[in-house]
Amino acid sequence: MMSEPKEIFVKLDQCMGCHTCELACAVAHSESKTLYGALLERSVPQKRIYVEWAPPNRPVPILCRHCEEAPCLHACISGAIFRSAEGVVRSDPDRCIGCWTCVMVCPYGVIGRHLQEQKAYKCDRCPDLKMPACVTACPTKALVYRSAATHAKEIRQTAAFKITAGSGA
Fold it and tell me: SS3 for 149?
């Protein structure tokens, strides 16, 4: 039986806007894979998750949703963006021609432009790690890596707890 693919979910009420996820992402995508090594690299490591602030004062981590109908994948004229067997939308830097079409069509603004290398980059969910670096690094566990079914079950259980506690849903 094939297991349901895991995704990164955000628990907004737990994010404190510390940007640790951004730093961990950049380090994980660096050559050295260490903070100090990354600082000295010629090509500056880039983050693939972005903590934005929404009114009145709420941090919101924004990352690639790996859309089922991914506009970036359909717009990529060089074929650099593809969907892996695990359902993750990835970018092959060797095939990217730096046209930025994917950047223009992404509805979440999470595809970056590496200007030094003239390549687009995006979240790849850290395929060499057991868990994406941003999730592992989050000190408040605002980022979770699990299947959509597991995530939905936790939300239902929380709602059920609130209903029985008399605080509504």
Answer: helix
Three-state secondary-structure class, residue 58? strand
Contact 163, 169 (CB under 8 A): yes
Q: Give the C-alpha separation, 119 to 100, whole Å.
A: 8
- Cis ω on the peptide bond leading into residue 56 (within 30° of 0)? yes
pLDDT tens-digit map of 134-146 = 999 999 999 999 9
DSSP assignment, residue 143?
A: E
| pLDDT single digits (tens) 110-119 | 999 999 899 9
| 61-64 contacts, C-beta under 8 A, 24 or more apart | 61/10, 61/15, 61/21, 61/134, 61/142, 61/143, 62/108, 62/109, 62/110, 63/8, 63/10, 63/108, 63/110, 63/123, 63/134, 64/89, 64/108, 64/110, 64/111, 64/122, 64/123
SS3 19: coil
**What are the distances in angstroms from CA 130 to CA 17, 61, 133, 135, 146?**
24, 21, 9, 11, 12
pTM of this prediction?
A: 0.91
